[in-house]
């Protein structure tokens, strides 16, 4: 019997982008070899979804080329529109607002996606086939661009999560509402990305589960409506948050019990560095993160098969 896949996705980007920077540093690249070694210990293969500032960082480039050469991971594309060339202002302070790529005109969207694709392919001498949108913002125009450029896998969908209250450009309508999207892998309909279709682009949604039962969620939402508030039900991700290893294991089990043939983990590259994120600020917190990862990975070692997104696509298509 084929084991479910364990997919490790890393949004590989600058240091602590949660802060309002006017410039970006990439010190976190130097902390990735430790994580890569842990993955290799358990025969897992991370996918480094790489954005602009990391793609031009010499240390990261050398590290990722080695990963590719040894077949121990994959490099894919990740795009933060506000600092990815060609830079064309969308707001009066793009570095403050961090507008979504899907808020840009079609021509600028295309230019940015094409630039990043060619930069990564030229730098790493391999075809880019995997992608995640910056700030999880995705739409039909974006999907069609990826298909045109030969991408095979997207992993931008966060089922059960509504990002519309997370603003990008002040004049925009916020991020994408994924509450009613599928939570299993599916080939997208290019004209309605919330539905399966006949395109060549395989969507691999994040592994996310509700924190509470359907009954409790219904009661909580009813109470919120009485107070004039509209909120999505609380969720748990397959994502470290400090001391949440039991929660992550529960997300894995719930996801597999629902019939999924994969579970998908994510974290930002900067979260493996002390002070690189709001979550793991100290060396002690980073050590706690690695304790949790050891516990999670050891529990999955015999239950799942580690593979890249490209390898998962090959499993799904038989190609």
Count of discrete structural domains: 1
Spatial extent as radius of gyration: 19 Å
Give me the CATH superfamily.
Glycoside hydrolase/deacetylase
Name given to the CATH architecture:
Alpha-Beta Barrel
The residue fraction in helices comes out at 25-40%
Tell me about this structure.
The protein is an alpha/beta fold. Helix content is about 35%, strand content about 15%. It is built from 10 helices and 12 strands. Strands 1, 2, 3, 4, 5, 6, 7, 8, 11 and 12 form a 10-stranded mixed β-sheet that branches. Strands 9-10 form a two-stranded antiparallel ribbon. Helix 5 runs parallel beside helix 6 and helix 8 packs parallel to helix 9.
Describe this protein with a few key phrases.
10 helices, two-stranded antiparallel sheet, TIM Barrel, ten-stranded mixed β-sheet, alpha/beta, globular
Question: What's the short story on this structure?
Answer:
The chain is an alpha/beta fold and 319 residues long. The chain contains ten helices and twelve strands. Strands 1, 2, 3, 4, 5, 6, 7, 8, 11 and 12 form a ten-stranded mixed sheet that branches. A two-stranded antiparallel ribbon has the order 9-10.
How is the secondary structure organized here?
Layout: E1 5-12, H1 32-41, E2 46-50, H2 52-55, H3 58-70, E3 74-79, H4 94-97, H5 106-124, E4 130-133, H6 140-148, E5 153-154, E6 186-189, E7 192-196, E8 202-203, E9 208-210, H7 214-226, E10 235-237, H8 245-257, E11 262-268, H9 283-300, E12 305-306, H10 309-317
Parallel strand pairs: 1-2, 1-11, 1-12, 2-3, 3-4, 4-5, 5-8
Antiparallel strand pairs: 6-7, 6-8, 9-10
Helix pairs in contact: 5-6, 8-9
